[in-house]
Amino acid sequence: MKTAGNVLSVLFDEQFMNKANECSKLFDSWQEITAKNGIAAAAAHSRIKDLDRGILLVEMDHPGWKQILQTKQAGLLNDFRRRFPDMGISGISLMLGKGTEKQAQEESASGGPVAEEPQKDTLPSAIEEAEPAAGPKAKGFDAINDEGFKETLKSLGQSIKAREKNVRLH
Q1: I need a surface site. Which of 4, 82, 99, 127 has the fewest CB within 10 A?
Q2: For 121-136, how does the pLDDT look when each residue is reduced to its tens digit (9 = 90+)?
Q3: 91-113 b/e with 16+ CB inside 10 Å = b?
Q4: Which residue has the higher pLDDT, 73 or 11?
Q5: Which of 44, 151, 51, 50 is closest to 101 using CA atoms?
Q6: Strand order in the sheet with 55-60
């Protein structure tokens, strides 16, 4: 006879595995969904980074790809919602990143980082306007010494800008 703990363990493990499989399918679907929206080449330069509170975070390696993805953002969102209705996807946030899955695979194959051109981070215009150029005393992001925290704040700013754009589109 199975104990209640055994039954609950199996149930939770099964639910966890189902959710994990669905997440795996979500991440694996990027190439197919970009192709369906007529931007198959974008999949080599971008990737799904995370799904956070219903927002699909997509990272790309160049501002040009961000602009292209923005033109197809509504179609991408609709396709993800149709294909994964139980995941509660409510928006897509596009952000520049340090690389893509393709670059990670190249690094893995070569045994180290692959040289890349420096990328300009884009910030929401409200933050840029509120942060004048640093004078004698550093201001804005320049005043933050912790690079990880600085990158997190920049990413948050990009997410907010993308969400505001999504709200305006709908």
Answers
A1: 4
A2: 433 333 333 334 444 5
A3: bbbbbbbebbbebeeeeeeeeee
A4: 73
A5: 44
A6: 46-52, 55-60, 91-96
Taking the CA atoms of residue 82, residue 84, residue 33 and residue 27 in that order, the dihedral angle to the nearest 10 degrees is 170
Indicate the helix (H) or strand (E) that contains 92: strand 91-96
Q: In this structure, is the dihedral angle defined by the CA atoms of residues 142, 117, 112 and 58, taken in order, positive or negative?
A: positive
**CA R_g for the chain:** 20
Confidence label for 58 from pLDDT (cuts 50, 70 and 90): very high
Neighbours of 121 (CB within 10 A): 16
DSSP string for 5-69: HHHHHHHHHHHHHHHHHHHHHHHHTHHHHHHHTT-GGGGGGEEEEEEETTEEEEEESSHHHHHHH
What's the first-to-final CA gap in the chain, in angstroms? 54
| Residue 50 β-bridge partners | 57
